[in-house]
Specification:
Layout (H helix, E strand, L loop, with lengths): L1 E8 L1 H14 L8 E8 L2 H18 L4 E11 L3 E8 L3 H16 L17 E7 L5 H11 L5 E13 L3 E8 L2
Antiparallel strand pairs: 1-2, 1-6, 3-4, 3-6, 4-5, 6-7
Protein backbone atom coordinates (compact mmCIF):
# COMPACT_ATOMS: atom_id res chain seq x y z
CA UNK A 1 0.00 0.00 0.00
CA UNK A 2 1.01 3.57 -0.64
CA UNK A 3 0.65 6.21 2.08
CA UNK A 4 0.40 9.90 1.23
CA UNK A 5 0.82 12.70 3.76
CA UNK A 6 -1.48 15.62 3.04
CA UNK A 7 -1.42 19.03 4.67
CA UNK A 8 -4.88 20.50 4.40
CA UNK A 9 -5.66 24.15 3.84
CA UNK A 10 -7.86 26.31 6.04
CA UNK A 11 -11.59 26.53 5.33
CA UNK A 12 -11.45 29.82 3.41
CA UNK A 13 -8.74 28.67 0.98
CA UNK A 14 -10.41 25.26 0.59
CA UNK A 15 -13.66 27.02 -0.33
CA UNK A 16 -11.93 29.30 -2.87
CA UNK A 17 -10.17 26.39 -4.61
CA UNK A 18 -13.26 24.17 -4.47
CA UNK A 19 -15.27 26.97 -6.10
CA UNK A 20 -12.62 27.25 -8.82
CA UNK A 21 -12.88 23.48 -9.39
CA UNK A 22 -16.67 23.73 -9.65
CA UNK A 23 -16.54 26.62 -12.15
CA UNK A 24 -13.94 24.77 -14.23
CA UNK A 25 -15.82 21.45 -14.10
CA UNK A 26 -13.01 19.74 -12.18
CA UNK A 27 -13.87 16.81 -9.93
CA UNK A 28 -11.43 15.76 -7.22
CA UNK A 29 -11.55 12.83 -4.83
CA UNK A 30 -9.65 14.83 -2.21
CA UNK A 31 -9.84 18.38 -0.87
CA UNK A 32 -7.22 20.99 -1.82
CA UNK A 33 -3.93 20.21 -0.09
CA UNK A 34 -0.15 20.11 -0.28
CA UNK A 35 1.51 16.70 -0.24
CA UNK A 36 4.43 16.50 2.20
CA UNK A 37 5.52 12.91 1.58
CA UNK A 38 4.64 9.66 -0.16
CA UNK A 39 5.66 6.27 1.19
CA UNK A 40 5.55 3.21 -1.06
CA UNK A 41 5.11 -0.30 0.36
CA UNK A 42 5.54 0.68 4.02
CA UNK A 43 4.05 -2.55 5.43
CA UNK A 44 2.34 -2.73 8.82
CA UNK A 45 5.35 -1.55 10.84
CA UNK A 46 5.92 1.33 8.44
CA UNK A 47 2.23 2.22 8.53
CA UNK A 48 2.35 2.42 12.34
CA UNK A 49 5.49 4.58 12.14
CA UNK A 50 3.77 6.89 9.64
CA UNK A 51 0.77 7.29 11.94
CA UNK A 52 3.10 7.99 14.88
CA UNK A 53 5.15 10.52 12.91
CA UNK A 54 2.04 12.42 11.82
CA UNK A 55 0.62 12.54 15.34
CA UNK A 56 3.93 13.74 16.84
CA UNK A 57 4.44 16.28 14.06
CA UNK A 58 0.96 17.77 14.49
CA UNK A 59 1.58 18.27 18.21
CA UNK A 60 4.92 19.95 17.61
CA UNK A 61 4.43 22.14 14.55
CA UNK A 62 2.28 25.12 13.69
CA UNK A 63 1.02 25.25 10.13
CA UNK A 64 2.64 28.10 8.22
CA UNK A 65 0.78 30.69 6.21
CA UNK A 66 1.25 30.13 2.48
CA UNK A 67 0.35 32.30 -0.49
CA UNK A 68 -0.53 30.67 -3.78
CA UNK A 69 0.61 33.22 -6.34
CA UNK A 70 1.74 31.06 -9.25
CA UNK A 71 0.39 28.42 -11.59
CA UNK A 72 2.57 25.56 -12.80
CA UNK A 73 2.47 22.53 -15.04
CA UNK A 74 4.08 19.11 -14.66
CA UNK A 75 4.16 17.73 -18.20
CA UNK A 76 4.89 14.00 -18.29
CA UNK A 77 4.40 11.12 -20.66
CA UNK A 78 1.67 9.50 -18.55
CA UNK A 79 -0.18 12.63 -17.38
CA UNK A 80 -0.17 16.42 -17.28
CA UNK A 81 -0.83 18.20 -13.99
CA UNK A 82 -1.76 21.85 -13.62
CA UNK A 83 -1.30 23.22 -10.13
CA UNK A 84 -1.24 26.25 -7.85
CA UNK A 85 2.23 26.90 -6.48
CA UNK A 86 2.81 28.66 -3.19
CA UNK A 87 5.60 31.15 -2.74
CA UNK A 88 8.42 28.99 -1.41
CA UNK A 89 9.36 30.82 1.76
CA UNK A 90 11.54 29.63 4.67
CA UNK A 91 8.60 28.82 7.01
CA UNK A 92 7.15 26.41 4.42
CA UNK A 93 10.52 24.77 3.74
CA UNK A 94 11.26 24.48 7.48
CA UNK A 95 7.84 22.91 8.03
CA UNK A 96 8.46 20.37 5.25
CA UNK A 97 11.98 19.56 6.46
CA UNK A 98 10.71 19.21 10.04
CA UNK A 99 8.31 16.49 8.94
CA UNK A 100 11.00 14.59 7.04
CA UNK A 101 13.51 14.91 9.89
CA UNK A 102 10.95 13.39 12.28
CA UNK A 103 9.86 10.63 9.89
CA UNK A 104 13.46 9.60 9.10
CA UNK A 105 14.06 9.06 12.83
CA UNK A 106 11.34 6.39 12.51
CA UNK A 107 13.12 4.77 9.53
CA UNK A 108 10.66 6.22 7.02
CA UNK A 109 11.97 7.42 3.69
CA UNK A 110 9.62 9.19 1.30
CA UNK A 111 9.81 8.78 -2.45
CA UNK A 112 12.57 11.00 -3.75
CA UNK A 113 10.63 13.87 -5.32
CA UNK A 114 8.94 14.71 -2.00
CA UNK A 115 12.17 14.87 0.02
CA UNK A 116 13.80 18.15 1.09
CA UNK A 117 15.77 19.64 -1.75
CA UNK A 118 13.59 17.86 -4.35
CA UNK A 119 10.08 18.89 -3.31
CA UNK A 120 8.01 21.20 -5.48
CA UNK A 121 5.14 22.27 -3.24
CA UNK A 122 1.88 22.41 -5.15
CA UNK A 123 -1.88 22.14 -4.90
CA UNK A 124 -3.17 20.12 -7.85
CA UNK A 125 -5.94 21.79 -9.80
CA UNK A 126 -6.41 19.17 -12.53
CA UNK A 127 -4.63 16.31 -14.20
CA UNK A 128 -5.09 14.58 -17.51
CA UNK A 129 -3.84 11.30 -18.86
CA UNK A 130 -0.97 11.47 -21.31
CA UNK A 131 -2.11 12.03 -24.86
CA UNK A 132 -5.24 13.96 -23.84
CA UNK A 133 -5.50 17.49 -25.19
CA UNK A 134 -4.63 19.74 -22.26
CA UNK A 135 -5.43 22.99 -24.08
CA UNK A 136 -9.08 23.14 -22.96
CA UNK A 137 -8.06 22.29 -19.38
CA UNK A 138 -5.56 25.14 -19.32
CA UNK A 139 -7.95 27.64 -20.92
CA UNK A 140 -10.71 26.84 -18.46
CA UNK A 141 -8.49 26.99 -15.38
CA UNK A 142 -6.77 30.22 -16.42
CA UNK A 143 -10.11 31.85 -17.23
CA UNK A 144 -11.30 31.29 -13.65
CA UNK A 145 -8.00 31.89 -11.85
CA UNK A 146 -8.13 35.63 -12.48
CA UNK A 147 -11.07 35.87 -10.09
CA UNK A 148 -9.36 34.19 -7.12
CA UNK A 149 -5.59 34.70 -7.31
CA UNK A 150 -3.62 35.10 -5.17
CA UNK A 151 -4.96 32.73 -2.49
CA UNK A 152 -3.60 32.86 1.06
CA UNK A 153 -3.99 29.80 3.26
CA UNK A 154 -3.00 28.54 6.66
CA UNK A 155 -1.94 24.90 6.64
CA UNK A 156 -4.25 23.69 9.38
CA UNK A 157 -4.18 19.89 9.59
CA UNK A 158 -2.12 16.89 8.54
CA UNK A 159 -3.66 13.70 7.22
CA UNK A 160 -2.57 10.20 6.20
CA UNK A 161 -4.23 8.82 3.08
CA UNK A 162 -3.86 5.14 2.28
CA UNK A 163 -3.98 4.44 -1.43
CA UNK A 164 -5.12 1.02 -2.59
CA UNK A 165 -8.11 0.28 -4.80
CA UNK A 166 -9.68 3.32 -3.11
CA UNK A 167 -8.46 6.24 -1.04
CA UNK A 168 -8.91 6.00 2.72
CA UNK A 169 -8.14 8.63 5.33
CA UNK A 170 -6.42 6.83 8.22
CA UNK A 171 -5.97 9.80 10.53
CA UNK A 172 -6.15 13.57 10.55
CA UNK A 173 -4.70 15.87 13.21
CA UNK A 174 -4.99 19.64 13.58
CA UNK A 175 -1.65 21.42 13.53
CA UNK A 176 -0.64 23.34 16.61
Amino acid sequence: MKHVIFVNLDAEATAAISELWAKAGIVSEVPPHLTLAVYENAGNAGRNNILSAVKDFAAAFEGPLVRFANVGIFPARDKTVIFLAPIVAPPLLDFHKGFHDLSEKLDLKSVEYYRPGQWIPHCTLDERAGGQDTGPMLETVFMHLRDVMPISARLDSIEVIEVGNTLASLTRHPLR
